Amino acid sequence: MSRLQKWWNGNWSIPVTAGILILLSFGVEHLAGGTWNSVVGPQWWIDAGEHAHGSGHAFTLANLLMLAAAVIAGYNIVIKAVRALTVRLISIDLLVSIAAIGAVLIGNFWEAAAVTTLFAIGHALEAATMNKTRSALAALVAVAPDSAVVVRDGKQTEIPAHQVRMGEIVLIKNGAKVPVDGQVVAGTGAVDEASITGESIPVEKAKSDQVFAGTVSRGGFLQVLATGVGADTTLARIIHRVEEAQDAKAKTQAFIDRFSTWYTPGVMVLALLAGLITQDVVLALTLLVIGCPGALVISIPVAIVAGIGRAARNGILIKGGEYLETSAKISAVAVDKTGTLTEGRPQLTDVVVLDPSLDRTAVLRWAAAAEAGSEHPLALPILESAREEGVGPSGFPGDVTPVAGKGIVSTVDGQRVLIGNAPLLEQYEVVDERGAGEAAHTLAAAGKTPMIIAVDESVIGVIGVADQIRTDAPEMVSRLHSAGVEKVVMLTGDTRLVAEAIGRATGIDEIHASMLPEDKLDAVAQMQREGHTVAMVGDGVNDAPALATADIGVAMGAAGSAVAVETADIALMGDNLLKLPESVSLAKRTVSVMKQNIVIALATVLALLIGVFAGGVTMSMGMLVHEGSVLIVILNAMRLMRNDVHSTAMPKTARTPNTPHSTHERNTLAS
């Protein structure tokens, strides 16, 4: 297709052609007096020309050019109006069509050309704006890789990206786009994941790390095992979700659509009554034109598309317009602790020796030997620390028995080893004569998870384990408050002491500790009964009931998680906590723009109506002002595409130590 053909099939060919004809009409009239000496058409047509031109001349060349402009600009408008009528829909196009045809019939060729051309310009502006506001989606599509280098039969083979098979080894070289979702099996490198997570800082990748299709290698060489190809990649799911979200209607938009179905016929009735009462056809036609709710109709969708597109560009997926609107009303945010406020990877912080005949190494050896047969995440930091100090267990305990809510009982070298809390000691009738309870309380008050260790009938020590608080957690809470969130609530299965330590460190407003999943659901429901619009941030597994009950469910670090991308109301693709307040702020700004646009649209129509009845507002002037209001609405919505000062990309590498994670929590499956 040539450039000329492409332009002719574009949005601007009709309004530009009509505009040229209008200018030619003015030029002919100015240079040649506007006279075309031949009489053309039936008498009513000639009379129309005379009526329009105010002279005795026959139908003029200037009028013919003006009529041609009206026909070219109005043809598609009339077609759309007729198509709408076939499905019993009275559209805005019908108002313009009746007004333009009526203007032609009474000889107001300039008015007909001006109205249809300005309306066509408005349509072109709307189309161009929607394309612009969908730029985030276009950018996502653009980063989709075209080719991939795979290892087949021991050789490097370049193939189209969609032909990569699951389980194949894909080679990622410096500067290349990653064509699949996969796991690094060899090599190291830095990958720019901005297209997925919105983070601008490249992420170092090594063996066992995950990579995503559409990201770009910024150095190094990676061999990747393909685990997601084609439509199963994270990028494909994001594109699909953004596409659906931008088309989904908000409640306000649905209301405007219903309003328009009554408003448009109302304008037609008003114009008819005004014409009958005043016997002024021009007044009636003018009312049809200025009553067009074009700016009102576009005011909501253009803001929604811009807002959702802006969020997607920053690694925030919002499911649709309805959820965008709801997010603007969020007044309470409930957050899970582990994996949200904390990194979810606890580390051994303390070993308190209570048996004078043992040292730190011996206590750690007993703890590691007992935990060697445990599948719980808290066992891992103990085992890792023991291996680092050279006292890691060489085998497995003879028997491991978990005790719900208390800890575990193991058999090591024929001796019984308890590791857990004070109630575990009581259950097995072990007397605490060495102050283990006090030591455990001290560790818990400091925000650490205490575990008492007893061998046979004797307490030998207490170890402390702590998760890592994210350094951006306090900033997240602060920014949520700045965004208008009244309270941030922690819902955790941890003990009260441990939870309070996190609350002090992060500035959490309200703490609910020792909670089971059903307790979290009740807490969310209670906040809703108090009148709050609640957002719940969690891992989507143990927090599933609370996430489903909340007004907005938020998934953190959803990149690579098909379930989170598809089911969460808001999916934060990266692991950056500051994306949460950013999403709330963006939702509030978007809704604010929607309200501003509605006011602009309605105020314009009201002012024009007053102007028509007061005199001085012509049909063409009314359409000009009307299209001006459409442009203002569009420009107002486009502000959402600009970078916001609160849009912050913060790497997740920096952490604050000593975040609690209690023995109780390991058994409640609540966090």
UniProtKB/TrEMBL annotation:
An annotated GO cellular component: plasma membrane
Gene3D superfamilies: Calcium-transporting ATPase, cytoplasmic domain N (3.40.1110.10), Calcium-transporting ATPase, cytoplasmic transduction domain A (2.70.150.10), HAD superfamily/HAD-like (3.40.50.1000)
Pfam families, A to Z: E1-E2_ATPase, Hydrolase
Keyword Transmembrane helix tagged: yes
Keyword field: ATP-binding, Cell membrane, Hydrolase, Membrane, Metal-binding, Nucleotide-binding, Translocase, Transmembrane, Transmembrane helix
Enzyme class: hydrolase
Biased composition (Basic and acidic residues): 662-671
Residue ranges constituting the P-type ATPase A domain according to the UniProt record: 144-243
Intracellular or extracellular location(s): Cell membrane
Top-level taxon of origin: Bacteria
InterPro entries for the chain: ATPase_P-typ_cyto_dom_N, ATPase_P-typ_P_site, ATPase_P-typ_TM_dom_sf, ATPase_P-typ_transduc_dom_A_sf, ATPase_P-type_domA, Cation_Transport_ATPase_IB, HAD-like_sf, HAD_sf
Main location: membrane
UniProt topology in membrane: Multi-pass membrane protein
Spans annotated as Disordered: 648-671
Name of the protein in question: Cd2+/Zn2+-exporting ATPase
Species per Swiss-Prot/TrEMBL record: Brevibacterium jeotgali
